[in-house]
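Margin note: ligand = zinc ion.
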Amino acid sequence: MTTVQELPADDGVNAAASYVARRIVTLAGPPLDGGCIVVQGGKIAAVGPRRIATGRVVDLGDALIAPGFVNAHTHLEFSGLTKPLGTAGMNFASWLREVIAFRREGPFDPQPAVVAGLQESLAAGVTTVGEIASTVPRQLFERPPRGPNVTAFMELIGLSESRAVAKLASLDEFLAAGDAAGVRRGISPHAPYTVRPSLVESAVARSTEQGVPLAFHLAESPEELELLRDGTGPLVDLLREIGAWDATAIPPKSRPLDYLKTLSGAPRTLLIHGNYFADDEIDFLAAQADRMTTVYCPRTHAYFGHARHPLEKLLAAGAAVAVGTDGRCTNPDLDLRAELRCLHRTFPNLSSERIVRLGTFDGAWALGVERDVGTLEVGKQADFVVVAEVPDESDPYAALLDERAVLLRTVVAGQSRIEFIR
Ligand SMILES: [Zn+2]
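Resulting structure:
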């Protein structure tokens, strides 16, 4: 059995600490054999060969150091679930009914789930998280600062005019409170079937004014496309049932492209899922690759049995892509490495290096924190993972993703937040 130990917060905070290991993947240059990372003040002071080691030296032995993983999309409020809601292969509207029932079962207290989700993320080597905060942004900001870096996107739901106005007022309050240590703010109008287009426009305006990222679930299911195109289908039935449908909110013959055009006004937008982007939408995203990223959630995609994800088309066109676990409401865990392995099984032609980038730097870029995290470079925050080397793997990127490569340590801002004792 593996023991998890939380360490005192001392590594590399004041005095320099040097981590030496058999290999280091920096993603800022070729992998290093027999490398060293020097950490001071929570940041990377040097990366190079073993001989640069200074201060307290932590010899990690036969291990590999790599940038911490970036989970670009999750919903931590569901982290207390032991299995996804509903059953695999169910249609999207039926699954949403399960979510509504789960929230109504009450009393629903997301706080313990959010804390558990942050801990689980660290234990999976995730050092940065894009979290959709539906009801509890406060909990994230009040937690002790020992978790991963978080971008907390306040979720907006409002199909009717009156609800949209109320939501916007609470968004302004949320944004006015400013960032906290390790936690930044973002905005997440939920999805086309729960948010009127005018509320998306207001969210984009706030995102631009305040320079905060925006996340929007889009082109997730055929039911969503039907609702946009015809104003009919299982999602409309569900919204009618719960009294939330507003037939005037969405113009007929709408498409994800209409939303992409609006969202392209924001400085950094994450399009969550994008399972059903059409070719012209992919071209649009490629043209906006300096500000828009599609976040593919491989195991959630598989859970619903969607048509093949347009990942290869997006990448070939030059569009930006990142990876998320989504919440435990559609996924058994928050392990981004497991997510990347699933992605690799689905798209075996992609190189391990490309896949590691999707789960690290590209996620950081999507969230707008690429200057601080995502690679191991001097001046960046010292966020990294240590995994045990696997004996027969010469490609360090493949070794990092290998199921046998046990995670040994997760370091955030130079502090070893979690260590697994072999
Ligand atoms: Zn989601």
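Residues 73, 75, 132, 217, 272, 326 surround zinc ion (CB under 6 Å).
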